[in-house]
Structure of NR LBD domain-containing protein:
Amino acid sequence: MSGVILSEEALTARRQLRMKKRQERLQRGQKVVEVGSLTEEQQQLITTLIDAHRKHFDANLEHFVGYRPQPIARTNWENFRQQHESLSFPDCSLGGVDQSAASEKIIEADTGTELPHFADLSTYMIQQVINFAKEIPVFRALSIDDQISLLKGATMEISHLQYNTAFNLETKIWECGRHKLTIEHGVMTGFQRMYLEPMQKFHITLRTLKLHESEYVLMQALALFSPDRPGVIEHKHIDKIQETIAMTLKCYIDYHHPLPGSRFLFAKLLSMLAELRTLNEENTKQMVHIQNVMEDAMTPLMKEIFS
């Protein structure tokens, strides 16, 4: 079968099968942990993730005011690897963008020039995800190559999970402080509506579940530690980390959500992560197209993520 390129449908089916097998494996493994209980290690994991999330997630975009990234000379992954062999990430981005280096006024979402605004906003969101990841000890312990591969694969997925908390179910608007974003802004940016509508539906479904903060951060960690991202080297090690996170999520759900409502919640969240993966793949295609049309509008960090 070597050399055979699977269709998107086949990839999705294989991913769902992998999720199903993982769920069955976790259910068998739960015999080791009393149903509904959380071990000290699981509680510490949740605390670490929540602390990282609260420290670096700016839901109201308060620190986005006045933000416009400056050009940077060194942005490629080889330079990043050379600069950060000690596993110490810069505070703002993979390529060393300084968030404090803001010199121009922000372009508002309702001015009609959505692409520059989108580029600035996306860069800001990417930086938040990077800073979130670097707060996690097991992530920092990975090789730089694997850190890069995981971030390139998961950044936009994590960002969607983060900003789902800002999604208003009634208005279908992402309410981020004074910034009100809709899928219409995405259309004006250059995204196809056939991509944006399933993305909005995903946010509606996820928001309807009324997840706890712990469940959101555990889902973010599951997306981050995906061993099948392109370029990942330590597959088995990262798979083990992801399984530990998944078990923690399962135990948390059992402990905090009464039956029968929570009976299928864990399976639903795994399914939604698989769906988010598909949406992310389509998002990358859309971004590549937009870059081909207006390459200068994309920031260096965005080009690194979507390359």
Observations:
- Residues 28-36, 68-80, 83-113 have pLDDT under 50 and may be disordered.
- The chain has one domain: 36-302.
- Residues 265-293 form the longest helix (29 residues).
